[in-house]
Amino acid sequence: MTTALINNAKQYVDNVFSKLQSKNAHQPEFLQAAEEIFLSLVPVFEQHPEYIKHNILERIVEPDRIVSFRVAWQDDNHDVQVNRGYRVQYNNVIGPYKGGLRFHPTVNESIMKFLAFEQIFKNALTGQPIGGGKGGSDFDPKGKSDAEIMRFCQAFMTELYRYVGPDVDVPAGDIGVGAREVGYLWGQYKRIRGAYESGVLTGKKPGYGGSLARTEATGYGLVYFVSEMLREANSTFLNKTVVVSGSGNVAIYAIEKAQHFGAKVVACSDSSGYIYDAEGIDLKIVKRLKEVEGKRISEYVTYRPNAVFTAGCEGIWTIPCDIALPCATQNEINGDQARTLIANGVKVVAEGANMPSNLEAINEFLDSGVLFGPAKAANAGGVAVSALEMAQNSSRTYWTFQEVDAKLHDIMKSIFNESSEAAKKYGYEGNLVVGSNIAGFVRVANGMLVEGVY
Ligand code: NDP
Fold this sequence. Notes:
Layout: H1 3-23, H2 28-47, H3 49-53, H4 56-60, E1 65-74, E2 80-91, E3 97-103, H5 109-125, E4 132-137, H6 146-160, E5 169-172, H7 179-193, H8 214-232, E6 241-245, H9 249-260, E7 264-270, E8 273-276, H10 283-292, H11 300-303, E9 308-311, E10 323-326, H12 335-343, E11 348-350, H13 359-367, E12 371-373, H14 375-378, H15 381-394, H16 401-425, H17 432-451
Parallel strand pairs: 3-4, 3-5, 6-7, 6-10, 10-11, 11-12
Antiparallel strand pairs: 1-2, 2-4, 7-8, 8-9
Helix pairs in contact: 1-2, 2-5, 2-17, 5-17, 6-7, 8-9, 8-15, 8-16, 12-13, 15-16, 16-17
NADPH dihydro-nicotinamide-adenine-dinucleotide phosphate (NDP) binds near residues 245, 269, 272 and 379.
C-alpha cells in the first residue's frame, strides 16, 4: 500500500471528525462514541479508497433524521407535566431502524445520538436485517405510580406513532423501559392505528407478541460472547471470580448465566452503591428485590448478613476479580478504575452496558493484554433476539425458549468470529474494538454503495 493512500485515509478521517466536532460541540457523549469508532476505521479506508470517493464516513455519521417532541401528561394529582421525547433514525440501509427507548432524566440529544450511532454497527454485526436508531425521554420513571407510567407511555406514543411501524422503525426497551412500558406503548399504538401490527415494537410480553428469551438475551448473550473470548484463550468461566455492575435486566441475566457456567459472582450494584458477597451472590434475593419489589440493592444484606453494602458505585472496581462485566450505564469505568482492575489481576472485561468504559480505560485494557469485549459486540444479544421477535411476529408464530436461546448462542459466536477475523484481516489481531467496528461498518458501507446516493 502506498504512503499516499495511508496518509489520505488518515487525513480523510481527521477531516470528517473535525467537521463533526464543530457541528456538535455541545454533544460530548456523541463525539466520544464517534471518535472511538472513527479511530478504528483508518485501516478500512486505507484498503477501500472507494469509501472515501463516496464519502461514506461523512454520510454515515449524519442521522437520517432526529425527531424531538413534547410529551404532556397528567400526574396522579391531575397536574400537567411536560417532558421531551426523541427518536433518532440513524441509518436504515440494512433494515428498518431498530433500537431501544430510554426513559431517564439524563436523556438528551447527545446521548440519544451516541446510542443510535453505536446501534447501527451493533445491529449490522448481528447479521439480522435491522438498521440503527434509538429514542427515549427525560421522563424519570422512579417514584411514579403505575397509572402515571401508563399515561406517560400513552402520551409518548400518541406522538411517536407517526414515525414508527413494523417496516419503518421498531423501538424496544432500554433503561427505564421494560415489558410493562412496552405493553402500554404497544396498546396505544394499536388503538391509534386500528391494526394488529405487532412487529412495531419488540420486548413485548411473551404470549402477547413477545419472544421467549428476550428478557434474558442481553445478559446471556454477553456471557456467551465472553465464553468465546475465553475459549480462544483456552479457558472457561468455571471457578472464575466475576464482578458485575448494575442489578437491572442486563446484570441479572449475566449473573445467572455466569453462575450457570460455574463462575462465582461476588458483587453487583445499583445507582446507590454496591454489595460484596464473598460466598457468591444469591441471585434469587437480587431478583426478588429488583424485579418484584423494586427495592434498593442495599436491602440484600438484611437477607445475607455476611455480605457488605458500600454506598457509592465507583468502589465496585476495586474488588479483585478474573472477569469484570460492567452492566449498568455509560462511563462507569475511567482510566484510574481500569488501572485498579488490572493491578488486581483482571483477565477479561466485557461490556454489558453501552459505553461503560471511557477511551482511556479501553486503551489501558488493550495495552495491558486484558481481553476486552466492546459493547457493540458483547451486548448485541438483546437486539439480536429483538430481530428474532420481529421474525416471529411477521410469520405469526412463536418459537420455544430453547430455539431462541440456541439461535442467540449461534449469533454471539458468529459476532465473535466476525469481529476477530476483521481485526486479523486489518492487522489488529486480538483487538475486538477495532474488529467489531470494522466488521459492522463494512457491512453498512457496502450497503450504502449498493443503494447509491441521490
Ligand atoms: P435497567 O434499567 O434494567 O438497569 C440499570 C441498572 O444499572 C440498575 O440496577 C441501575 O440502578 C444501575 N445503575 C444506573 N446507574 C448506575 C451507576 N452510575 N452505577 C451503578 N449502577 C447504576 O437497564 P438495563 O439493564 O436494561 O441496561 C443497562 C445498560 O445496558 C444500559 O447501558 C443499556 O443501554 C445497555 N443495554 C441494555 C440492553 C437490554 O436488552 N436491556 C441491550 C443492550 C444494551 P438503579 O436501579 O438504582 O437505577
